[in-house]
Amino acid sequence: MNIPQSSFPRIIIIGGGFGGIALAKKLSGKDVQVLLLDRHNYHTFQPLLYQVSTGGLEPDSIAYPIRKVLQGYPNFYFRLAEVMQIDTEKRRLETNIGGIGYDYLVVATGSETNFFGNQNIQSNGMAMKTVPQSLNLRSLILENFEQALLTDDLHERDALMNFVIVGGGPTGVELAGALAEIKKGILPKDYPDLDTRRAQINLVQGSDRILPAMSEVASAKAERFLEKLGVNVWKNIRVSDYNGKRVTTDTDTKFEACTLVWAAGVKAVSIKGLDAGDFISRGSRLKVNHFHQVEGFEEIFAIGDVAQMESEAFPHGHPMMAQPAIQQGESLGENLARLVDEKPMKPFKYKDKGSMATVGRNKAVVDLKKFKFQGVFAWYVWMFVHLYFLIGFRNRVVVFINWVYNYIKFDREARLIIRPFKKEYQVSKK
Ligand SMILES: Cc1cc2nc3c(=O)[nH]c(=O)nc-3n(C[C@H](O)[C@H](O)[C@H](O)COP(=O)(O)OP(=O)(O)OC[C@H]3O[C@@H](n4cnc5c(N)ncnc54)[C@H](O)[C@@H]3O)c2cc1C
Fold it and tell me: What is the distance in A from the centroid of ligand 1 to the CA of 107?
């Protein structure tokens, strides 16, 4: 790889997500050479992916060029590259654009959808972890409604208009709420010749409450919000199979639906060479000490979703969320600078700022350390926090204007099939 030699130690960061970007920013101006590698040339603001899938936002308002974020940083290099392998002995990476050596390596590769080995669900269901996946989902939803117009078979038409969302965490709840709003406000106007009232939005949760990581009051309120919007919330049911049309569960309940979104699990993105050993936890995360060093390695660090730092307060590691990734990136930035200056590193301490989820217009739930609140005010807080953490001034302005417009007009205008998503299952054209 064509990166100049430097008298400074070379730090390679794999992944320009929340953790990787926070780390790179902290290293700016320090006596190090930084090389950031990512398979995308943009940072993705994953919390708003569901709005891309449901036509509320264009993808370019929640993605941001990595080069632009780090423009003007001294000793900083970015390469659009997929890292294929890590040779921990030779301290070298192999990527799709060539190999390169490192002095320090930071793995910040995030997480991917975990289908728990269920091939049928993986092939026939939809994931929503990346911008291309969200665009696929947007296209599929719209294509299914176009297909529903073409069939005389009522059973088939219903299946084309039905949704099953598996997983009652924030992603499932937010997506279900957005789909319910589309069903109510947009579908009847867009498809006047379809009885869109028959469309069903089913949220299926394996445990006895949705938003299990939040307080019980937040779970109960979110469930009430969803039911008010017309979402069917199914609890204590696990989806076991899906053939593209029929959803089977571990109970007698079955669903006929041509769209299944799997939001029921994630696992760390691992890289060959650092994917087996005592340092791998359940969920493929890399076990790190309190300085983010991967167990058994002094020069390899991990942050964000891919890292598991166990502590008394977090025996299974920190939650796989943006805040821990950002705070870990910042902490590691300071520690790497200290390490290079031959100063002792400081252990990481997570400051839990709370969690939140929105169900739709004027409806959100917020759990802070001291206060828990739900409803309109919570929704304003949710919007403010998301705008604040979105990268790029333009993106903040565009998202804000879109939200105001959608609020006033009860609309979501990005419902475009720009890049058709081809599914094997096709309705016969009559
Ligand atoms: C739909 C959705 C909604 C969410 N909502 C919220 C929310 O409301 N609040 C919240 O706090 N969190 C939310 N999260 C979780 C949050 O987005 C993640 O916890 C956070 O992105 C983790 O940051 P990270 O830096 O570890 O990884 P990421 O942000 O995922 O970044 C990882 C980067 O690594 C790159 N990469 C991976 N493998 C390679 C490779 N081999 N070579 C090169 N590059 C590679 C990827 O392209 C990516 O850019 C949500 C996630 C999803 C999917």
Answer: 12
